[in-house]
Amino acid sequence: MILSYIIKRLLLAIFTLLIILLVSYTLLRLAPGDPASSDMFSGGSGTISSKEGALKQNHSMREKLHLDKPVLTGFAIWLKNIVLHGDFGESVTVDPGRSVTSVIGERISLTVKLNLWAILITYLLAIPIGVFSAAKAGSFADRCTEITLFILYSLPVMWVGLLLQSLLCEGGSLPLFPLSGAEPDDQLQLNIWQYQFEQIRHLFLPVLCLSYAGFAGLSRYTRGSVLQNIHADYMRTALAKGVTANTALWKHAFRNALITMITLFSGILPSLIAGSVIVEYIFNLPGMGTLSLQALSSRDYPLQMALFTFAGVLTLAGIMICDLLYMAADPRIRLTK
């Protein structure tokens, strides 16, 4: 049953991804401007021959990107190259001449590392705090936690990142962390432990900026879900049978509250990837976020479409993983559709 469900969901995910990519490609084509007409391919105020050469180069670029063909035809050619050859094309403005996959391959490891640490910290901190707040609902500690989490959730990432830079980075009031970059400059002179320590120093503030808002939001959702289950009839029955309060809280109330946390997980991965655009820009990190910003500003169509594909696959994979985790959290759930 699970295998047939996975197959059905995979087919649905492929169809959904095709719709997402078609809409993304159409919007890119309909947006004003394109790479072939950008300044880097224009002749400016040069001679007539240079202008003619620029026009020929622009025409050649339009043919290469299939901008001279209808939208559906261009999308079909792009999709055929991916399905048959695994070829996303070449970057035209960000890193001209290089394959899109190699450009993304250089950047993806840093973004994955940042987001894995952010997700781990978010869940490891949010779940205990949310359960504690629900168990102590209405107490002074609960109200202080609630106010703190509300403030954290309200703080803009860009403002927090710039504030941390001005206070805790080199040149600030308390220079504990480097101002930018993901690697130490003198890494060849460091041993393995010094290198690991320097990497922690470089990534600590970016991970903090990526995780604090998600941590605050998840804590609040966890509190509300656990609090709802604490007052359920089955909890009173468990306590009446002699089950201790901590056992009833974690084994019964928390397990039923997992459904909410699993649902939120499907949206955390895409939101962290989107948030890494700002964080990587602030801390000058060469990751996927910075690459997305460069591709968007320079109209690099092949690179943008590859990034849209990556984001779509990530979102659909998160939803499918959540569906499978539902059944693990609650055996009463059956994946029949």
Report on this model:
With 337 residues, the chain is mostly helical. It contains eleven helices and no strands. The protein has helices at 2-30, 48-64, 71-85, 100-135, 140-154, 157-168, 192-230, 233-240, 245-282, 288-298, 301-329. The chain is globular.
Number of helices: 11
- Overall pLDDT confidence: 83
- Cα(first) to Cα(last) distance is 10 Å
Q: Could you give a short account of the major beta sheet? A: none
- Helix/strand structural class: mainly alpha
Which overall shape is indicated by the principal axes computed on the Cα atoms? globular
Q: SSE order in H/E notation?
A: HHHHHHHHHHH
The tally of strands reads 0
Report the helical percentage.
over 70%
Strand percentage? under 5%
Computed Rg: 25 Å
Q: Summarize this, please?
A:
This protein has 337 residues and is mainly alpha-helical. The protein contains 11 helices and no strands.
Set down the secondary structure blueprint.
Elements: H1 2-30, H2 48-64, H3 71-85, H4 100-135, H5 140-154, H6 157-168, H7 192-230, H8 233-240, H9 245-282, H10 288-298, H11 301-329
List its salient traits.
337 residues; globular; mainly alpha
